[in-house]
Amino acid sequence: MAYFTIVSNYGSYRATSHEFKLVFLHWTTVVAVDEDVIPKTCFNLFPFSDLLNMTQDYDFFANVIGLLTSVGKEKEYAKEGKS
Questions:
Q1: Is the CA virtual torsion 2, 60, 7, 44 positive or negative?
Q2: Kind and range of the H or E run holding 5
Q3: Stretch 57-80: mean pLDDT, rounded?
Q4: Cα 78 to the chain's mean position, in Å?
Q5: Every domain of the chain and the residues it spans
Q6: pLDDT over 80 at 41, yes or no
Q7: Is the dihedral of CA 43, 6, 15, 65 positive or negative?
Q8: Stretch 31-55: mean pLDDT, rounded?
């Protein structure tokens, strides 16, 4: 990766609890690498029921990984005159 910067990761809406974050610039370039180079153990996974029952306020985002179980017929919705 080229043309990026590393800054302190602070504020109300952080994507992770890590101390630092990468900032991609307009001209940032990224090159593919072998899968084994990047560790796959950087995520903290929780059952969805645990996320719903959390009582502590976290200062970073939680993402939900889902599974598509079916596809139904396409529907059209109208809201404020737009469909």
A1: negative
A2: strand 2-8
A3: 78
A4: 29
A5: 2-53
A6: no
A7: negative
A8: 75
